[in-house]
Design goal:
224 residues; alpha+beta; Glutaredoxin; 4-stranded mixed sheet; 54% helix; globular
Length: 224
C-alpha cells in the first residue's frame, strides 16, 4: 500500500498517526502542497480533486481521509474500528459530524479564515464579520462536543476506548494550535485533547501542525 500525504495536512496527520500506532508497513510519499505539486499533471492523474491524502492498495484507490481510516482499520483488524454494528455506527456518526459540522465552522470559519489568504474575504470589514461569525458558530459546535459527545463521562469520543473517530477528530481540533486555542472554556475537550497529546506517536505524526503554528505566531487572533 502507498499513502500520498503531506505532514502539515489536517486530514493526513490522523492517518499517519494511526499507521504509526498500529505498526502498519505502508509506503508514504510526501506531496509538496506548499509548492502546488498537487495541481501538477502527475498528481492530478492520481487524484483529480488535487487533494491529499490518497491511499493506493494495488489497483484500489481511496481519496478521502475518513474512508482511508476505515479501510485501514478494517484491513488490519484494529480494535479502533469496532465490529459491533451499534458501536461501529456511533464511530461513523461521530466522524461524519466532525466532517460536516465541526470542521466547517471551527476549521474554516474560525481558524483558516485568519491564517490562510485564500480563506479570507478581501474587504477588511467583511473579513472581521466573517471571523466573528466563524467564532460564534465554532463555539456552538464546541459546546456540543464538550457537553454532549464528551459530556457523558467517557474518556474517548465513542466510549471507553480510543477509536478512529478520535484520530480523525484530533487532526481537526489540532488546527486550533494555529491561532492559540486553549479550549480552557471546554474542560471535557481539553481533557480529551490532552489524552491525544499524551499518545506515544502524537508528536512525530503531528510535528507539521506545530511547525505551521510557528509561522502563524504574532497577530492577536480570535480563539477559544
Amino acid at each position: 500500500m502507498k499513502l500520498y500525504q503531506n505532514p502539515v495536512s489536517t486530514t493526513c496527520r490522523p492517518i499517519m498517526m494511526f499507521i504509526a500506532d498500529e505498526g502498519l508497513e505502508i509506503e508514504q510519499q510526501i506531496v509538496d502542497i506548499m509548492a502546488g505539486e498537487q495541481y501538477g499533471e502527475a498528481f492530478t492523474k492520481i487524484n483529480p480533486n488535487n487533494f491529499v491524502p490518497v491511499l493506493e492498495d494495488g489497483d484500489f484507490k481511496l481519496l478521502e481521509s475518513s474512508a482511508i481510516l476505515k479501510y485501514l482499520a478494517e484491513k488490519c483488524g484494529s480494535a479502533a474500528y469496532p465490529t459491533d454494528p451499534r458501536a461501529r455506527a456511533r464511530v461513523n456518526e461521530v466522524m461524519d459530524w466532525f466532517n460536516t459540522s465541526f470542521y466547517r465552522t471551527f476549521g474554516y470559519g474560525l481558524v483558516y479564515s485568519q491564517v490562510l489568504d485564500n480563506c479570507k474575504l478581501p474587504d477588511d470589514a467583511a473579513h472581521k464579520l466573517q471571523v466573528s461569525e466563524g467564532k460564534a458558530q465554532a463555539e456552538r459546535f464546541l459546546s456540543v462536543l464538550n457537553d454532549n459527545i464528551l459530556g457523558q463521562g467517557a474518556p474517548w469520543l465513542c466510549g471507553e476506548t480510543i477509536t478512529i473517530a478520535d484520530y480523525f477528530a484530533s487532526g481537526m481540533v489540532s488546527v486550533g494550535e494555529l491561532v492559540g486555542c486553549t479550549f480552557d472554556a471546554y474542560p471535557n475537550i481539553r481533557a480529551w485533547y490532552d489524552r491525544m497529546l499524551a499518545l506515544p506517536n502524537w508528536q512525530s505524526a503531528n510535528a507539521g501542525v506545530y511547525q505551521w503554528a510557528s509561522f502563524t505566531e504574532g497577530p492577536n487572533y480570535l480563539s477559544v
